[in-house]
Amino acid sequence: MSQEYTIAVLPGDGIGPEVIAEAIKVMRVVETRLGLKLNLNEQPVGGAGYEASGKPLPDDTLKAAKSADAVLLGAVGGPKWEAIDFSLRPERALLGLRSELGLFANLRPAKVFRALTEASSLKPEVVEGLDVLVVRELTGGIYFGEPRGVETLPDGERRGINTLVYTESEIVRIAEVAFDVALKRNKKVCSVDKANVLEATGLWREVVTDLHKKKYSAVELSHMYVDNAAMQLVRNPKQFDVIVTTNMFGDILSDEASMLTGSIGMLPSASLGGKTAMYEPIHGSAPDIAGQDMANPLATILSVGMMFKYSLDREDVNTVLENVVESILDAGYRTKDIMSKGMKEVGCKAMGDLVVQAL
Ligand code: ATP
Ligand code: MG
């Protein structure tokens, strides 16, 4: 009996549909080669969702996502929808999906492919072979804490307020994700906080330390203040394996880590926590290059790899896809975003075809 999976495929806007089309080609090959059945349930999201139903996250799209084994998303947003009401903006679909699916853990690997070592803004020896994973808490912290807002004081001066809140159970569940993935990697976790200034992150440090003692002594745990972590990431990034941190610190550090690799078009991500996880490239809808067959589809194809690893229990597929990408880069093929002298420039579709051929 062949295994059967349902994947909600949400192409979205801009280059989203272009990179998703290549990912679908790749999934079809994997399906045939492994003798699986993949039911791909394609639904509009973001600006496309708004056009189709007046909402960035249409009811049918949410239903498809909730009932799927995994969600694969392209990208949302674009100039066309910048002027509409905040609650109807394409980006709201992401917040809606995260909260409806209970996705509290965002995993962003920053990996430097051998052939792209020179693309980094850092010295080759600093980033060569770099493979860091940032685990960011996604549904709590200062982005969601109450009270929040802007109020006017009696004397007319305005005051802006946001509140950093973490409960013990929120910290435990994100730390568990980080320790669990570290066990499958190099067994090192660095927990990043600002425990010397912020009480909520003092609790963070305490809870992570306790959990480590109780359940994860096989993993090496260290702690770092966020300012130091930001510095260490550019000074000596290879000291890190898994970094686990709060929503806001993770937002910043994961962008910093991704830039060490030199290309936004190469990096996948996973959001885990609930029954159904979501996978997407870290880049946006790139309206400046949409519709020109120029986008790099590899971040999305590597997101498919993460989907097989974390949702479909087929880590081998992820390994194969990573190796295929490595070999295509070694052979000198590049999309425009990672192009350098002497290399062979290809478009989005041709890059997808190269992956299909190599598979
Ligand atoms: P968002 O707010 O959705 O994150 P953004 O404008 O901040 O959007 P992107 O849409 O990711 O960021 O685009 C940033 C730059 O990177 C653009 O110049 C875009 O063309 C380029 N870019 C993004 N993704 C890719 C890709 N897959 N291939 C090639 N270039 C890309
Ligand atoms: Mg952006």
UniProtKB/TrEMBL annotation:
<comment type="subunit">
    <text>Homodimer.</text>
</comment>
<keyword id="KW-0560">Oxidoreductase</keyword>
<feature type="binding site">
    <location>
        <begin position="78"/>
        <end position="91"/>
    </location>
    <ligand>
        <name>NAD(+)</name>
    </ligand>
</feature>
<keyword id="KW-0963">Cytoplasm</keyword>
<dbReference type="InterPro" id="IPR004429">
    <property type="entry name" value="Isopropylmalate_DH"/>
</dbReference>
<feature type="binding site">
    <location>
        <position position="98"/>
    </location>
    <ligand>
        <name>substrate</name>
    </ligand>
</feature>
<feature type="binding site">
    <location>
        <position position="227"/>
    </location>
    <ligand>
        <name>Mg(2+)</name>
    </ligand>
</feature>
<feature type="site" description="Important for catalysis">
    <location>
        <position position="143"/>
    </location>
</feature>
<keyword id="KW-0100">Branched-chain amino acid biosynthesis</keyword>
<feature type="domain" description="Isopropylmalate dehydrogenase-like">
    <location>
        <begin position="6"/>
        <end position="355"/>
    </location>
</feature>
<feature type="binding site">
    <location>
        <position position="136"/>
    </location>
    <ligand>
        <name>substrate</name>
    </ligand>
</feature>
<keyword id="KW-0432">Leucine biosynthesis</keyword>
<dbReference type="GO" id="GO:0003862">
    <property type="term" value="F:3-isopropylmalate dehydrogenase activity"/>
</dbReference>
<keyword id="KW-0460">Magnesium</keyword>
<keyword id="KW-0520">NAD</keyword>
<keyword id="KW-0464">Manganese</keyword>
<feature type="binding site">
    <location>
        <position position="227"/>
    </location>
    <ligand>
        <name>substrate</name>
    </ligand>
</feature>
<dbReference type="InterPro" id="IPR024084">
    <property type="entry name" value="IsoPropMal-DH-like_dom"/>
</dbReference>
<keyword id="KW-0028">Amino-acid biosynthesis</keyword>
<dbReference type="Pfam" id="PF00180">
    <property type="entry name" value="Iso_dh"/>
</dbReference>
<dbReference type="InterPro" id="IPR019818">
    <property type="entry name" value="IsoCit/isopropylmalate_DH_CS"/>
</dbReference>
<comment type="pathway">
    <text>Amino-acid biosynthesis; L-leucine biosynthesis; L-leucine from 3-methyl-2-oxobutanoate: step 3/4.</text>
</comment>
<comment type="function">
    <text>Catalyzes the oxidation of 3-carboxy-2-hydroxy-4-methylpentanoate (3-isopropylmalate) to 3-carboxy-4-methyl-2-oxopentanoate. The product decarboxylates to 4-methyl-2 oxopentanoate.</text>
</comment>
<comment type="similarity">
    <text>Belongs to the isocitrate and isopropylmalate dehydrogenases family. LeuB type 1 subfamily.</text>
</comment>
<protein>
    <recommendedName>
        <fullName>3-isopropylmalate dehydrogenase</fullName>
        <ecNumber>1.1.1.85</ecNumber>
    </recommendedName>
</protein>
<feature type="binding site">
    <location>
        <position position="108"/>
    </location>
    <ligand>
        <name>substrate</name>
    </ligand>
</feature>
<keyword id="KW-0479">Metal-binding</keyword>
<feature type="binding site">
    <location>
        <position position="251"/>
    </location>
    <ligand>
        <name>Mg(2+)</name>
    </ligand>
</feature>
<feature type="binding site">
    <location>
        <position position="255"/>
    </location>
    <ligand>
        <name>Mg(2+)</name>
    </ligand>
</feature>
<feature type="site" description="Important for catalysis">
    <location>
        <position position="194"/>
    </location>
</feature>
<feature type="binding site">
    <location>
        <begin position="284"/>
        <end position="296"/>
    </location>
    <ligand>
        <name>NAD(+)</name>
    </ligand>
</feature>
